[in-house]
Amino acid sequence: MDATGIGLWGVPLAILGGAIRVSTPFIFVSLGEAITERSGRINLGLEGTLVFGAMTAYAVAVMTGSPWLGLIAAAIAGLCFGLFHGWICKFRGVNDIAIGIALMLFGSGLAFFFGKPFIQPSAPDLPAIPLGAWSDIPQVQAALDVNVLFLIGAALAVFLWWAFRNTRAGLIVRVVGDSSDAARAMGLNPDTVRLIATGVGGALAGIGGAYLSLYYPGSWTEGISSGQGLMAVALVIFARWNPLGCFAAALLFGGAGALGPALQSVGVTQGYYLFYAAPYILTLIIMIATSSPSRSLAGAPGELSITK
Amino acid sequence: MSATTNSKAVGVEAIGMTMRFGAFTALDDVSVKVPAGSFHALLGENGAGKSTLVKCMMGFYHPTSGDMLVDGREVTIASPKDASALGLGMVYQHFTLVPSLTGAENLVISREKVPGVIDWRKERSGLAQFMERMPFKLPLDVKVAELAAGEKQKLEIVKQLYLGRSFLVLDEPTSVLTPGEAQEVLGLVRAMTRAGDLTVLMISHKFHEVTAFADDVSVLRKGKLTGTGRVTDLDHKAMAAMMIGDQPIAALDSRAEPKLDAEIVLKVKALKAPDRTGLKSIRIEDLGVRSGEIVGIAGISGNGQKEFLEVLAGQRPRDAGEVMVRGTTYAATRAEARALNVRLIPEEPLKNACAPKMTVAENISFRTFDIDGNGKPVNWISAGAIRAFSARLVEQFKVKTASLSSPIASLSGGNVQRAVLARELTGEVDLLIVSNPCFGLDFSAVAEIRARIMKARNAGAAVLLMSEDLDELLELSDRIFVMSDGALVYETPIALASVQTIGEHMAGHH
């Protein structure tokens, strides 16, 4: 069978493949943000963390030759960013959103500064599992070439969904996110819990960044994230702070992001670039559709500054 | 895994408790003895030192001097943790349950030791066993946010018992409950003290609760113990005397005969507006308030009263319906309010009716600063006129303030409310809309504010009074409506009003 033999079927197939490929950073960033927001803080700095994570992972992978070391380095860098955000936000009168924006710019700027020498060299990729090997259609093979991080992200979503209900740590995060007073009455320190939650959120965003530079698109450039970290924050609200919802929403965004390239690949030459804007338009539509001037969002953590 | 629940009630005694904050003595040598298995009431006005006393007992504060005995033995309680280790617990006035967690999750996570991974099957059977021993029946699998106020209050108490506490401080436990719910909760708690399972110290300012449920009572005034004794030996008058001393109380004007054919000043027809959540709406089918009458609206907070007031005040858009004042459509603009003499006293006046950081004088002149004596707009605002105007009102309404140029936020609650009353009740008033005017104020301020409202009514104002305090409504209103779930569900003239029936409608049992 030749490559063009499946005709228009290539579009949904490419969207599926794209969804799997493009969604992975969304999954990690949004799960990280879900943990942070469930604890009552919002960290807009994850965009910066994502970019810095991408640069760190790429640089470490180039220097050591191991993508896994790069991944770990990115997670550690993200953890530091998250802890920094969490630490600053514990002071009185500090606004978590403003700090987040500052850290977003800081993270990107720092990544560009340190990343300059790494634009040229190439780093080893993270491994993928050829789940499409049973088929001899190259498009199917391409679509089902699934990176391990995607599978880890899916498992993580299920785990978090379970953990928010069934573990002490999960319940504590929810308590702190919903009522600082209740948490204090239980002898918990909300600042500490939020510090840890923001740190973990940052580490996950760092891993998302590693995926960007080490698998797809698979190289380090300054425009590597193009706002995915910010979209992931919107996605958490869309998913109503539910990890499984985050996973599904990430797939949806990933699929929307793959629409443009997919149309191009089947020979649509006019206006396909409009579809490159699909994820951004989707973000806008979702934000408008799920918000209302006269009520607060159902399911929002009570301590979250944007929904208070 | 489950907490100890069969522990017997303990007796608690505070001896010579004194608490000074700088030069201010909040608590002056107060001793209270609560024997095991008794129900003790602690009476006093706001600021009398009730909370300070229990906070000292529970380890939130470190008293300047004083001792604690638990079951006759001297103990040191340096922190709430020490208190809970001794079986002492407190149920706060404001709920400490986490709204988005279920009852079961709330109970389990509040335990001292929670396993890393929670085995819900085991926990659930443990909880079911525990609940069998409780007099309360509660749905534990529902999110706390979806429980009624009475159920939340019960869950708070159950939580303390689940944690193995056998001495409970209840801080005004019935302030958010309907009369029926209050009866039920306190009745059950009382049965547990009778059975010797529990000792209770209840902070209250409602005499009828104290008489109906408590064994003993201690009364505080200005940080001093002014009386203590068996409840059976004391009547309401004796308790009130201990509570407020000999300060003069403003007497309510006698009610002028209402005229049945008086002009209908406020008319609300088929009003519909979204509520706070945006998921439900409030609907007021038909409400008229005549000149010279007070129409009271009863209801548990959160049933749409606040939204209704906001619509009348122009703070909330309405979907449909009409609000008419003296026959003309009213949209609550400044010009309309001025032309029709509509005045508004919202709840929590500092937050809703004042600019907290602006001065007392400025706040008092909000209605008049931009017009001259003839009601014409002025180009230049005269600071002198503002001061003279507010100086007169401060004098007349007995607002206690350090100076006219103090920020109004520095005044006590009663004086903020006096300043707002001065602003709203000066000049001609045809329609007065009031919400919870006496919430959190002390006896003398309450009496004075109620007297002013009654005076305005007798002078011919139409008054719409929303209140969560049923006693206040019964004292002031000519007619009472009950608001439940966003609608007016019941109306009664004051002569036929019964607490029982009103309470049932508040709870939505009809």
Model description:
The complex is a heterodimer of chains A (308) and B (510). With 308 residues, chain A is an all-alpha fold. Chain A has one domain: Orthogonal Bundle (ABC transporter involved in vitamin B12 uptake, BtuC). Helix content of chain A is 68%, strand content 2%. Chain A has a two-stranded antiparallel sheet with strand order 1-2. The longest helix of chain A is centred in the N-terminal third of the chain and has 29 residues, at 10-38. The model of chain A has no long low-confidence stretch (mean pLDDT 87). Chain B starts with 11 loop residues before the first strand and ends with a helix. Chain B has helices at residues 50-57, 80-85, 103-109, 120-132, 149-162, 179-194, 207-213, 236-244, 305-312, 334-340, 349-352, 360-364, 383-396, 413-425, 443-458, 470-476, 499-506; strands at residues 12-21, 24-34, 39-44, 65-70, 73-75, 88-91, 167-171, 199-204, 216-221, 224-230, 264-274, 281-290, 294-298, 320-325, 328-329, 342-345, 431-435, 462-466, 479-484, 487-493. Chain B is an alpha/beta fold. In chain B, 43% of the residues are buried. Chain B has three domains: 12-244, Rossmann fold, CATH 3.40.50.300; 264-341 and 428-509, P-loop containing nucleotide triphosphate hydrolases (Rossmann fold), CATH 3.40.50.300; 349-427, no CATH class. In chain B, the strands form four sheets. In chain B, strands 6-7-8-3-9-10 form a six-stranded mixed sheet, sandwiched between helices. In chain B, strands 16-17-18-13-19-20 form a six-stranded mixed sheet, with helices on both faces. In chain B, helix 14 (413-425) runs parallel beside helix 15 (443-458). Classes of the chains: A mainly alpha (308), B alpha/beta (510).
